[in-house]
Amino acid sequence: MKTHSTKPSEIERDWLLVDAEGVVLGRLASEVAKRLMGKHKPNYAPHLDTGDHVVVVNAAKVVLTGNKLLSKEAIRHSGYPGGLKRVAYSKLMVERPEKAIERAVRGMLPSTKLGRAMLRKLGVYAGPQHPHTSQKPQTLDVKQVAAPHNPEQAHTIEEVVQGG
After folding, report:
1. DSSP label at 107?
2. Is 125 among the domain residues?
């Protein structure tokens, strides 16, 4: 018996469509990262990008549990003194909900050239429309693995904006 090593010519990529409506952000991000890396495939190799293309729609309807929508912040630094920027997730989810999902998925991918190549196969859109219909993506239902355990603790951006 010989050990099989996957070659780049053997990699087959599928297109997956994920609906983020009512799904917890972190659970969605971990499932999407797994698909981008290719860990769900039998020919997964950690040194190759064997993953699929993933299109996430309805990013504006993703759910954050607990008090994260009010207390969590997206932090970045320009590299210059005084260049620290903080944006509350309540503001980020209203203005650019795609960024919240992209940040969560990026944090779960490798911090290498390979991780950046995997991230390029991700498309996130705030609404239900996307420009990848010609690729005929298969629908991936993540609601079983990514639904909130306690729906009373889950908060959408509409609830926070309305004051609920």
Report:
1. T
2. yes
The pTM of the full predicted model, rounded to 2 decimals, is 0.88
Q: Give the three-class secondary structure for 108.
A: coil
Helix H segments across the chain? 25-37, 68-71, 89-95, 97-106, 113-119, 143-146, 157-162
pLDDT tens digit sequence for 24-65: 999 999 999 999 999 999 999 999 999 999 999 999 999 998
In the chain, the number of structural domains is 1
Q: What is the CATH number of the domain that holds 30?
A: 3.90.1180.10
Q: What is the pLDDT of residue 102?
A: 97
Structural domain of 42: 13-68+96-162
Burial of 99-117, coded b for 16+ CB within 10 Å and e otherwise, reads: bbbbebbbebbeeeeebee
